[in-house]
């Protein structure tokens, strides 16, 4: 990238065209899945890059670090139609910084977090319970065998609405493993729906990233989180 104002302006126009093309490609591959919400994962992007996504028509943005979320949230405040998602590990002591600014939380995975959220929320928050679907030690999320009791326990916290489940599929080139993971998530979603809990309608599934979102929507994802496709 050049450093003169003209070079910078040319770079910015090029950047906008690129984002529009990337978005067009993703939208094409989602034809027939009109119920899927595309959330742009902005963790690899600076504020200007994120702004170019919004100008290209993306209205759902997601971050996974509180400091980066706050920076972008403040910088992009003028776009009142933007909805903010948070999908990183959320430490209880950081809850106060983000809690009444985000529209969706994808990483609800423990009671202490539910307690803290419930204490600080001004109105109910749409949450996804994160499931450690592939039982990997290094990943957040509720273990599968604890999912149902955990969700039932959330009835104590009136500010928490469980709109769905979220997972990060294992990183592997074995498509079958990824597909089985998404199928299992869909079954878990139906298990939660069968409980018929008012506070946990569980109508949504947040799964699918740049490398696996096409498989995810095939198996019932309604929110996909894409970052690298926009780089
Ligand atoms: C970064 C991130 C994404 C997006 O991943 P890409 O591979 O860049 O599409 C989705 N979900 C979570 C939780 C992330 O941290």
Secondary-structure element order, N to C: HEHEHEHEHEEHEHEHE
The proportion of residues forming helix, as a percent range, comes to 25-40%
Structure annotation, total helices: 8
Bound molecules: pyridoxal-5'-phosphate
Low-confidence stretches: none
Number of strands: 9
Strand content: 15-25%
Terminus-to-terminus distance: 15 Å
Structural class: alpha/beta
Q: What is the 3D form?
A: globular
Rg, Cα atoms, Å: 18 Å
Major beta sheet summary: 9 strands, parallel
Mean pLDDT: 95
What do these coordinates show?
With 231 residues, this protein is an alpha/beta fold. The chain has eight helices and nine strands. Strands 1, 2, 3, 4, 5, 6, 7, 8 and 9 form a nine-stranded parallel β-sheet that branches. α1 (5-29) crosses α2. The longest helix has 25 residues, at 5-29. The chain starts with a helix and ends in a 5-residue tail after the last strand. The model has no long low-confidence stretch (mean pLDDT 95). Bound molecules: pyridoxal-5'-phosphate. Pyridoxal-5'-phosphate binds next to β9. Pyridoxal-5'-phosphate (PLP) binds next to β9.
